[in-house]
Amino acid sequence: MTNPISGRGRGQGKTILFGEHAVVYGCPALACALDRGAVATVTAAEHRPLRISHPHGVIDDSPELQTALDALFAVFDARADQWSIDITIDIPVGVGLGSSAAMAVAVARALADAMDLDGEDTSQRIARAAAASEAAVHGTPSGIDQTAAMGEGLFLFQRPADGEAPRITPLKSAPSSWVIARVAPPSSTANMVAGVAALHHAQPQLCDKLFEAIADLTHRGARALTDHRLDEVGQLMNLNQGLLNALGTSTPRLEEACQRARDAGALGAKLTGAGGGGCIIALAAPDHISSIVQALEPMGDVFNAGLPPGQERP
Ligand code: PMV
Predict the structure, then answer these.
(1) pTM metric for this prediction
(2) Which of 181, 183, 207 is nearest to 196 (CA)?
């Protein structure tokens, strides 16, 4: 008996250090791929219901997921209902850490592996497939999540408003210590992006000024991080958090978590991702990781402590 055609692929999660939401309007954002994410296996077979396992349980097949997978498989001229798909995710889902893009890249890579495709054309096809899947889930994604999911490390990302290809600038972070904590239940990225769009529609000039300020602090934050001016990075994170709150994407619980982290020795703290719930990220002052972890643990799960975002685990 011949082995069934199958393939395996991986996609990484991400954390946004500066610039979420503004990035949807053409501003730069600074993000970092995490060393964790999703692993997918695809096998050419009779379709069976998709099941996705993740740290907090199992996600069953849903019409939304099927639409995303159909869009992804179509880029490979394939049909999702002719493959069985298994996905394991090792990051919290729906809390701003890019789980859906990690899944999409993992499945697209697994499919490319099963079809024996490689080379530059294939990477572009994987990126297009992940973008199609993300668009089905999120509506108008900036593309930052799937860029990180492909494993870009620390990078500045900007998608020009005219629909041209995004500009991706890889950067090298100075040594630094971070804490990421999931302190509130998930929110829908599509709803949060729609909320900002509604505010932008009502107050276009004011919102554009907020986006400009976020773009400015993102550039400053990227320079300060690469030059190891960590006090300044923290200050800029706090400013970014204030502007995210002004855009309606923070919540009292996220504010409380940021304040707890700062009181416990964080140089700065902000929500990361779409907001409305989910995670915060804090930059720890030297020797303050454990006090920040202690301050945040009563509010939820501390997901990643100590490692610079994106740094490989030993
Ligand atoms: O919550 P996440 O992981 O989907 O991150 C969303 C980031 C946004 O800037 C809010 C949206 C986007 O597409 O860039």
Answers:
(1) 0.90
(2) 207
